[in-house]
Amino acid sequence: MSSLLLFYSVILGAIIGSFLNVVIFRFHTGRSIGGRSSCATCAHRLKWFDLIPIVSFVILGGKCRSCHSRISWQYPLIELLTAAVFFCITANFLENPNTIAEWTVLGFSLVVWPLLIVILGYDLRHKIIPDALVYTVALGTLLFRLIMIAFAGEGGSWIDLLAGPIFFIPFFLLWFLSNGRWMGLGDGKLSLGIGWLLGMYGGISALVFGFWAGAIVGLFLVAITSVQSRLKRGSKAVTMKSELPFAPFLIAGMCAVQFFNFSLFAGL
Ligand SMILES: [Zn+2]
Fold first, then answer.
1. At 124, is the secondary structure helix, strand, or coil?
2. What is the 37 CA–ligand 1 centroid distance (Å)?
3. How many Å apart are CA 24 and CA 208, to the nearest integer?
4. Which residue range or ranges hold the Prepilin type IV endopeptidase peptidase domain (predicted)?
5. In the predicted model, what is the mean pLDDT of the chain?
């Protein structure tokens, strides 16, 4: 039974992931979210069998059936990621499915995580976090935290309610003092949701995970591209001043805490 549920959650995740791809590509670009999918290069209308998540990309070898131009890797990666996240949400739920807390976590996760995946993809692609998405996450996670405190018993205390605003303050100061040059405020708005979804301890763990992951990947990119630009003149080096989208690292931290029990406070 539970393995069947996990199987269906992966299928559902992949299908939702392919919809999230459309949102990532078209949100705020003036194109409608609805409407038929077509090749970005030759406008060839895609048939249903070109739209099967992950499978179609593999069968087509990552190329358009009509003009053979490359299809973005974003498609299969977001579909795989969403499938994996849905698997984790279901697996976590199945560990202890009969408490109010677990049902609440399940319900809100199925709404909040797709939004987080869109934010992740959007930040990578467009280098910005849309307000509409990040405020929806903040509102949803605030409601989640209030329900947990009110009805779910072990679902945390008022300190977890303060976690969101407390995490927001340092991001706001960085943004304010630098006039937005060091960091956009989008990451701060996202940290509201981190605090309310994961509480104080979980939230701190996610933020620290995100900062370390971002720093390691950032330094790695600086090193690689500076070697590349020396070998090949004209290619642009990533410097410490280049903007590295930060939301994906924060969301990776949230993933580590919620699904893999990552904690800096494991001994407490
Ligand atoms: Zn094409």
1. helix
2. 11
3. 27
4. 112-219
5. 90
Q: Which of 62, 95, 128 is the last residue of a domain?
A: 95
Q: Give pLDDT, residue 227.
A: 86
Q: Which domain holds residue 133?
A: 98-268
Distance between CA atoms of 217 and 250, rounded to whole angstroms?
A: 13
pLDDT over 70, % of the chain = 94
Residues 42 and 114 occupy one common structural domain: no
* Ligand 1 centroid distance, CA of 48 (Å): 15
Distance 122 CA to ligand 1 centre (A): 23
Number of domains in the chain: 2
State yes or no: pLDDT of 73 exceeds 80: yes
For residues 64 and 160, state if they share a domain. no
Question: Do 266 and 169 share a structural domain?
Answer: yes
Residue 68 Cα to ligand 1 midpoint, Å, equals 6
Query: How far does the centroid of ligand 1 lie from the alpha carbon of residue 57, in Å?
Result: 13
